[in-house]
Amino acid sequence: MNRSAHIGLLLATMIGLAVAAATVGSVGLAQVTTAMATIGWVGMASFVLWSGGVLGLLGMAWVSVAPGEPVTHAARFVWARTTREAATDILPFSQLGGLVVGARTLAAFGVPQPVIYASMIADLTTEMAAQLLFTLAGVAVLLMVLTDQSVQQGLVPLALGGVVAMVALMALFVFAQKPVLALAGKLGARILPGSVAMTDAIRDQLDLIYREPKRVIAAFLFNLAAWLASAAGAWIALRFMGVGTPLWAVLMIEALIFTLRSVAFAIPGAIGVQEAAYVLIGPLVGLPPATALALSLLKRARDVIIAVPALLAWQVGEARRVVS
């Protein structure tokens, strides 16, 4: 990363932290900490274990579009997806750093680089498609729930704007895959020897993936199941907190939150965006602001509980490969 990128990333992080702090301050720190404490150790452990199951679904989605990789290698992809999510959630590199860490994790198992990068592109495509379907369902529920005209004027444009942004990102990602690879090959030919062969190999693997629609559909279904399961995890956490918000309402909230997080991909961990969104959307279905914010912070705590051990284990593996 160049100096300008570092400065931009730092500013985005600082702005996100300021928004998060202001959100906590406006709701009340004491109320938020009290709400967080209600989940208990059993509830938090259940929340973390459920999230581990979600990572399993994401790993299955990835291996589904990895040419030549049997299902028996699924554990490798689950672990790679775990380190990828860990880096995305807690390291200050946003999405790009997570993709690099996930790719290096798979490479350590001997998976060929063209297979890694082609399957990652296909997996991201199916993941975005599944998220779009999930988001559209969430927006549809939101439109049915909202009756207050003043609230509609504030939230509906925001939700629809998020959908439009997601559609644009997905269209760009889908239709620019091969042109971008071709451009990268041409640029790389002037800088790095062997880069043309690599981009050609990735493109060949992508063609192979898309010639097997069953594998692409399987990845889409696994990713859709992961989005739904992740949202259901928030409902489980709320139940342990003694909050009886209906499952459909939590699914709607989570669909909108995920959308806003995706649009705010430049901010590491969507810090501030997630917290403000919970406080804004939660009360629409009777979720008090303090409880909504507590749920957001519990998700942050869960991310740390999973990510820190995963990244430490990954670093140990990296160190061993350097020494050996």
Automatic annotation (TrEMBL):
Kindly name one Pfam family recorded for this protein. Answer: LPG_synthase_TM
Q: Please list which residues make up the signal peptide.
A: 1-20
Q: Does the keyword Nucleotide-binding apply?
A: no
Location of the protein in the cell: Cell membrane
* Protein's membrane topology: Multi-pass membrane protein
Q: What is its main location?
A: membrane
Annotated TM spans = 47-65, 86-109, 129-147, 154-176, 216-238, 250-271, 277-298
Keyword line = Cell membrane, Membrane, Signal, Transmembrane, Transmembrane helix
The organism's place on the tree of life at top rank: Bacteria
From the Swiss-Prot or TrEMBL record, give the protein name. Answer: HpnL family protein
